[in-house]
Amino acid sequence: MPSNKFFTNRDDNTLLNKFEGTFKSNPEIQFFDALVGYFRASGYFSVRPHLINIPTGGVPHIRILVGINVDNLLKNAQEAGLEFFKNHDKTKEEFLNDIIADIQDAKYNKRTEDGILEFIQDIVSKKIIIKAHPDKKIHVKVYIFYRNIEDKYDKQISVITGSSNLTDAGLGTGSQFNYEFNVELDNYDEVKFAHDEFELLWSESVNILPVDVQDLTKKPTSKLLRLLSYISRC
Fold first, then answer.
1. Element (H, E) at 20
2. 54 FRET partner, CA 20 to 30 A, in 27, 125, 130, 205?
3. Which value, in Å, is the radius of gyration of the alpha carbons in the chain?
4. Are strands 62-70 and 128-132 parallel, antiparallel or unpaired?
């Protein structure tokens, strides 16, 4: 009788724990694609330690496609990272030193400080890229792990799909989280189908991230926004 591939987040069987198990079982995974409705900084900060062995350089090895919403913290951090490539007068070292000083001055907690810096470093190193679909309100949640998607005999593949977004609530890492229902599949045809659908949506997507409309003037000025203003004047 085949094992049950469905899982919920009962008894600490969270999506984050499933990610950890997938990478441990498939240590040679080189690519991670995520197609989600919502993306939060807290989600990326939690997942990143499990992505540490994914290569950097060349084509992005981590691709995240957001269909509905990403929070301002990630939007601003991505814009800061992308701005680096437009400013050829600033070296990577100078840029990251400015980022470090700016984040520390903003008095975020340590986890947020480290997370923002790591996120920007991942963008600068071309390890990660994030896009948004311009017209489809994507609400699905699909996570694809693979080494060589064209090799049907390669066992370093897996896909998780279900209800969990790339957020603290979806991953099961926050103090309050949703009831989630997901399934992990490792059949080549299933993983390849998910990958091909992702590629189609990715080809239609853009580097502009959608965010909730917020009145930023009523909140303390984001240090990252100030840094962007500084870079634009250089």
1. helix 15-25
2. 205
3. 18
4. parallel
Calculate ∠ Cα 123-129-132, nearest 5°. 135
Burial of 48 (0-12, 13-18, 19+ CB in 10 A): middle
Q: How many other C-beta atoms are found inside a 10 Å radius of the C-beta of residue 189? A: 9
Contact 149, 194 (CB under 8 A): no
Cα 233 from Cα 231, distance rounded (Å): 5
CB 128 within 8 A of CB 207: no
The DSSP 8-state label assigned to residue 155 in this structure reads -
Each residue's pLDDT, cut to its tens digit, for the chain (234 residues) gives 356 899 988 877 899 999 999 999 999 999 999 999 888 877 888 899 999 889 887 788 999 998 777 777 777 777 777 776 666 556 666 666 666 676 666 667 787 778 878 887 888 788 888 888 777 778 889 999 999 999 999 999 999 999 999 988 889 886 667 789 999 999 999 999 999 999 999 998 877 544 332 222 233 344 444 443 333 333
Q: What CATH number belongs to 6-233?
A: 3.30.870.10
Share in percent of the chain as helix, strand, coil (round to 5): 45, 20, 35
